[in-house]
Amino acid sequence: MAEQKETSLVAKLIPVMLAFFAMGFVDSVGTATNYVKESFGLSNTVANLCPSMVFFWFLVCSVPTGMLMNKIGRRKTVLISLAVTVAALLLPVVAYNFPVMMLAFALLGIGNALLQVSLNPLVSNIVSGDKLASFMTFGQFVKAIASFIAPIFAAWFFAKTGNWVWMYGVFALETVLAFVMLWKEDIKEEEMTGKPSTFKECLGLLKNGIILLCFIGIACHVGLDVGTNTAAPQILMDRLGWTLDKAIYATSIYFLFRTIGCFTGSFLLAKFEAKHIFAVSVFMMLTAMCGLLVFHSQWPLYVCIALIGLGNSNIFPIIFSQALLQMPDKKNEVSGLMIMGLIGGTVFPFLMGWASDAMGSQRGSIIVLMIGVSYLIYLISKIKKVA
Known about the structure:
This protein has helices at residues 2-23, 28-40, 44-47, 49-72, 74-94, 98-123, 132-161, 166-184, 199-204, 209-240, 244-247, 249-271, 274-294, 298-311, 315-326, 331-340, 344-359, 363-382. The chain is mostly helical. It has one domain: Growth Hormone, Chain: A.
């Protein structure tokens, strides 16, 4: 009986983890931004509109997606998100120009907003609440693998074909596989009782102090994530005089250590108090940011980028699971609010691009990133027990 239950759990988790992998494709926007900037000769400010175009839709779509889940369920919402993601990934393969890329980024943002709002609470229908943070972290590990390979795929396709966007064709195939497998799998969801929450009522949850802190925390986490994988190659080009094809691997270093952090975090969070892991993670990022301001040689800069990836790897699941456990009867609405916090992926790159152009170097970007780290330090003292 126990063996059958374990087999059933694995069968349900496989398509969900494939969907987490597809979720990671959104992180390719950092790599894509650098290629688009070079292809069309854009300034830092204009180029950083690319990630802004992706993450703007988290502000628009997140809460409505939570309301949509109340009507059609989490699994069906995930399926819709995967379909939108396929369309976004195929657009650049069909035509590569700046307007098409902006449309593709917009669709990628819409699809990913739907996916992140619906997929995380769907995990809570498969695993028990006390293991939620651990399994969500494992999902982030799977997502991070996709994030890690994106710069490698882009560089490989660019070297072999002269067209980096072919990586999106490969990603589209994986997304189709995730769609088909999840469509065939039956996942039991709890029935919705009572009157569905309105948009105003969803936003009203921010009146809860912990929910508001978590919302801002996720905005800072995503801002650090998108900002770092966008700025890392630019920092190496700025400090070392490298070309993009050499500096782009800095993004892979970030995501490699973020992947390692997610993998180890899925075990550590099952054994140790999340608050302690959160604190260590934040101080790793603070140390790295200070290093980026002063170092001017390759390996120290690599170490700093790696530390940011390692430190930022477990921030999201810790904050997200805290929010879900704060209001277990409002999981869909809380999930929508938390994913709306991904608007940080729009705000941070825009401010970073402006600050870099204003200062004439990537030090402006680093200063903006340090603001996000400072808030996470503040969050340690405010959340007594995370997850």
